[in-house]
Design the sequence.
């Protein structure tokens, strides 16, 4: 098991005040909050910071942690000394709403799983029945999956009451069909796949929120899909029929004469095949051919002489 | 412990026109009704129908409620702050998607 330096994670000194720790947490939480952050490892960092704060904000836990000494470094192999927590009373003291299922082995060894399964309060009372809670997870798919449908294997962690009456974290794998036509942010409800009920209560539902992986060529707004399409200046000026990729295969697209950069051409119904299918918008971008040969430069000069063109006329110069 | 399930699960896609009652939304988001009422009061989610008994919520509300609650819980913002953050986050996501 690896030691975790909670002070280092929070970026505070070992003698930081509780106020300083709180401020550091708020700042880091805003930076790495998975709903807010654009950092790629936001979720992992957010959990790490949450775990560190769980310990440092609680004077009891912090004192016990401090007692391990200041010589440990993050990542060092660690075994807690026997009776290290003697005299502290945090076991079973409960967490303050943090999602303890995501905490490290290091944390669990020191502080136990405690009340991680807070939802199970009262579960041992005879004859108690309750519906299981609904569970939530995110599923990442590619844009192409939304056109064709796909299946995804998801591994979910959930807390369950063990035979000894203590909450345990269990993993399970579900194979889920991602329906064709699904859009970013939509929810898929899997009835009965949430947390198990207590007693004769029925299990909750599992809600999957769909998110798209960023695509190299397309971007998506609702059911509409956008593609930037480079075209040559002569194609833009004279019109042309060009090959255009779409998520379901290449098509021929007619570029009307006089298409300026930024012009949007709509391919109706070729967006995401939702119940109300989206459109595919091709946004033309006029690409500049390089003038890196004598012939190329000559062509540009002919161009200049043939056309009386001032692109800055509207600026009054 | 791992329970491998071989079978393929078919879910129900919550289309925009799928509507949830107040009770269903509470169950889906694991929150008491008072919290949903507070979020409605702040305009974070907008039900149709007169009076709480007849309220119907669009399926997208599940995501907005959960995001608002996470922001409140994790960042210590109040409901109005969460509403502002949600709106800005949505705008940011749109702009980022467009810029790519």
Sequence:
């Amino acid at each position: 098991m690896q030691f975790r330096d909670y002070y280092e994670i929070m970026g505070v000194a070992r003698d930081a005040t509780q106020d300083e720790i709180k401020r550091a947490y708020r700042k880091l939480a805003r930076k790495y909050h998975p709903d807010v952050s654009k950092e790629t490892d936001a979720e992992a960092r957010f959990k790490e910071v949450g775990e560190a704060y769980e310990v440092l904000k609680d004077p009891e836990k912090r004192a016990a942690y401090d007692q391990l000494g200041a010589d440990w470094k993050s990542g060092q192999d660690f075994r807690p000394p026997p009776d290290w927590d003697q005299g502290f009373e945090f076991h079973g003291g409960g967490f303050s709403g943090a999602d303890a299922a995501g905490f490290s082995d290091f944390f669990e060894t020191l502080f136990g799983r405690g009340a991680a399964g807070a939802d199970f309060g009262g579960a041992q009372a005879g004859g108690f029945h309750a519906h299981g809670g609904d569970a939530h997870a995110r599923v990442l798919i590619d844009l192409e999956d939304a056109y064709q449908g796909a299946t995804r294997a998801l591994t979910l962690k959930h807390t369950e009451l063990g035979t000894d009456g203590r909450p345990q974290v269990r993993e399970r794998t579900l194979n889920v069909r991602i329906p064709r036509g699904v859009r970013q942010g939509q929810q898929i409800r899997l009835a009965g796949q949430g947390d198990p009920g207590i007693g004769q209560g029925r299990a909750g539902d599992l809600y999957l929120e769909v998110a798209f992986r960023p695509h190299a060529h397309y971007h998506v707004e609702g059911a509409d899909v956008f593609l930037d399409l480079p075209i040559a200046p002569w194609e833009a000026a004279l019109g042309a029929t060009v090959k255009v990729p779409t998520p379901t295969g290449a098509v021929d697209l007619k570029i009307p004469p006089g298409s300026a950069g930024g012009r949007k051409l709509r391919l109706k119904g070729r967006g995401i095949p939702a119940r109300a299918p989206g459109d595919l918008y091709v946004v033309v971008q006029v690409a500049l051919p390089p003038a890196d040969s004598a012939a190329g430069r000559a062509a540009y000069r002919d161009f200049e002489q043939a056309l009386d063109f001032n692109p800055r006329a509207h600026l009054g110069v | 412990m791992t329970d491998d399930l071989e079978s393929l699960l078919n879910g129900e896609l919550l289309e925009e026109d799928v509507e949830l009652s107040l009770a269903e939304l509470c169950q889906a988001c694991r929150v008491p009704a008072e919290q949903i009422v507070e979020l409605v009061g702040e305009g974070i989610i907008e039900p149709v129908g007169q009076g709480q008994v007849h309220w119907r919520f669009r399926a997208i509300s599940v995501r907005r409620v959960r995001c608002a609650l996470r922001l409140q819980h994790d960042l210590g913002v109040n409901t109005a702050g969460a509403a502002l953050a949600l709106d800005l986050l949505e705008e940011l996501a749109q702009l980022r998607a467009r810029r790519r």
Notes: The domain at 19-99 of chain B is CATH 1.10.1660.10 (Multidrug-efflux Transporter Regulator; Chain: A; Domain 2).
